[in-house]
Amino acid sequence: MKQLHKQSASARKDEEMPASDTPPYSPKSLKNPRSLPRSLNYILKEQRLLFVLIGIVIGATFFILQPSLSSSDGRGVISIANRESIDGLGHRGQTDFGRHGYGKYTNGVGRVPVGIGNRRKRIVVTGGAGFVGSHLVDKLIARGDDVIVIDNFFTGRKENVVHLFGNPRFELIRHDVVEPILLEVDQIYHLACPASPVHYKHNPVKTIKTNVMGTLNMLGLAKRIGARFLLTSTSEVYGDPLEHPQKETYWGHVNPIGVRSCYDEGKRVAETLTMDYHRGDGVEVRIARIFNTYGPRMCLDDGRVVSNFVAQAIRKQPMTVYGDGKQTRSFQYVSDLVYGLIALMEGEHIGPFNLGNPGEFTMLELAEVVKETIDPSATVEFKPNTADDPHKRKPDISKAKELLNWEPKISLKEGLPRMVDDFRNRILNEDEGRGSR
Ligand SMILES: NC(=O)c1ccc[n+]([C@@H]2O[C@H](COP(=O)([O-])OP(=O)(O)OC[C@H]3O[C@@H](n4cnc5c(N)ncnc54)[C@H](O)[C@@H]3O)[C@@H](O)[C@H]2O)c1
């Protein structure tokens, strides 16, 4: 109080100073020496200094702790990924999305607002209502991402994704990829294209349009929004191969004017477009060359050999073998493929990568496995072979093993029974449907 009183007294003294005593001009700099002790006084009084120091300590503590807080977020993401990578199918640790950038990947684009770098991804899957697409969508949703499926239902079915309809992280858009579409996403899995010979030969011009214009549209979208783009190409780009097994470096042996060209050449153009958008426009791209894949949700009568044999054996019809049945194929279970696609999308390498099971079977050997699995009394019926049917097909997957740390785990004998239950149910429902008409 005494001090306060003194201060106000001295202030009054200043006010009482006669005007004539004031110098005519007082430069601003002269004020400082007088105001410095006053501001120091101000800080020292009423424990203000103490409050300032406490503030500094709180601020410093926050900045020191911040890195460890964010690293604990990162650990959370990795643990989700690890949980995902154990699925009872022997895929433990195969897709360590955390390690491969699941948590850190922001696509190299400056669009992700500061502070939400670790948010879940928005992903488009074209052809997501089809066989492979629907399994991929299941995996992405289970991983915690938001997924938009684009499909025109040419060969896809709503039944393949109906179990996701109530899920707020799932959206379905009926759309033909031949027409442009505008969406904001981080990744595009481009699968839309009929994949079985019966379907793609049904309307070859539409098939090549889907491959060329559909891929152009999706690459254009990827460029515009800075999304990463993955093309599902095919082993058909190798045509009737003169190299066996096929490596990614092999350029293929394809008939450009045959009945399968709409698909084979269509996918080759799609690969070219993908690489040109990458080289010319800096789009982040990935290319998978998929070999024969089978599993639940395949179309029942799509002419692909595994689904044909399985459906025929269940219906007690002879299994149709085209040609002498000595042509070979390799058969990959769908969950193996899905793991491969995700590892490719999340990894650092563009590809192309062969994704297939290197186990090689003749058509007659496959028929034997189907017989063992479904009906030992099943028979085989031979028919003339179709045009341009490749004689041999077997992937060399050493590149995917080395760079994606991926290889298939499910053998044909393990995988086949898993699709048989699904086929049996659908065939039964089909028969019941017919019976009730
Ligand atoms: N399954 C295999 O063995 C295999 C082998 C090699 C390559 N692939 C490739 O994998 C992808 C998926 O194959 P799948 O076996 O799931 O085939 P699928 O026929 O079951 O699925 C294709 C999906 O694409 C949709 N689609 C087709 N044209 C479209 C268009 N213009 N616009 C929008 N959607 C369209 C279909 O309705 C369907 O849902 C295809 O690109 C195929 O070429 C598959």
From TrEMBL:
<feature type="region of interest" description="Disordered">
    <location>
        <begin position="1"/>
        <end position="32"/>
    </location>
</feature>
<feature type="domain" description="NAD(P)-binding">
    <location>
        <begin position="125"/>
        <end position="419"/>
    </location>
</feature>
<protein>
    <recommendedName>
        <fullName>UDP-glucuronate decarboxylase</fullName>
        <ecNumber>4.1.1.35</ecNumber>
    </recommendedName>
</protein>
<dbReference type="InterPro" id="IPR044516">
    <property type="entry name" value="UXS-like"/>
</dbReference>
<keyword id="KW-0520">NAD</keyword>
<comment type="similarity">
    <text>Belongs to the NAD(P)-dependent epimerase/dehydratase family. UDP-glucuronic acid decarboxylase subfamily.</text>
</comment>
<dbReference type="GO" id="GO:0042732">
    <property type="term" value="P:D-xylose metabolic process"/>
</dbReference>
<keyword id="KW-0812">Transmembrane</keyword>
<comment type="function">
    <text>Catalyzes the NAD-dependent decarboxylation of UDP-glucuronic acid to UDP-xylose. Necessary for the biosynthesis of the core tetrasaccharide in glycosaminoglycan biosynthesis.</text>
</comment>
<dbReference type="GO" id="GO:0033320">
    <property type="term" value="P:UDP-D-xylose biosynthetic process"/>
</dbReference>
<dbReference type="GO" id="GO:0048040">
    <property type="term" value="F:UDP-glucuronate decarboxylase activity"/>
</dbReference>
<keyword id="KW-0456">Lyase</keyword>
<dbReference type="InterPro" id="IPR016040">
    <property type="entry name" value="NAD(P)-bd_dom"/>
</dbReference>
<dbReference type="GO" id="GO:0032580">
    <property type="term" value="C:Golgi cisterna membrane"/>
</dbReference>
<dbReference type="InterPro" id="IPR036291">
    <property type="entry name" value="NAD(P)-bd_dom_sf"/>
</dbReference>
<feature type="transmembrane region" description="Helical">
    <location>
        <begin position="48"/>
        <end position="65"/>
    </location>
</feature>
<dbReference type="Pfam" id="PF16363">
    <property type="entry name" value="GDP_Man_Dehyd"/>
</dbReference>
<comment type="pathway">
    <text>Nucleotide-sugar biosynthesis; UDP-alpha-D-xylose biosynthesis; UDP-alpha-D-xylose from UDP-alpha-D-glucuronate: step 1/1.</text>
</comment>
<keyword id="KW-1133">Transmembrane helix</keyword>
<keyword id="KW-0472">Membrane</keyword>
<dbReference type="GO" id="GO:0070403">
    <property type="term" value="F:NAD+ binding"/>
</dbReference>
<keyword id="KW-0210">Decarboxylase</keyword>
<feature type="compositionally biased region" description="Polar residues">
    <location>
        <begin position="1"/>
        <end position="10"/>
    </location>
</feature>
<keyword id="KW-0333">Golgi apparatus</keyword>
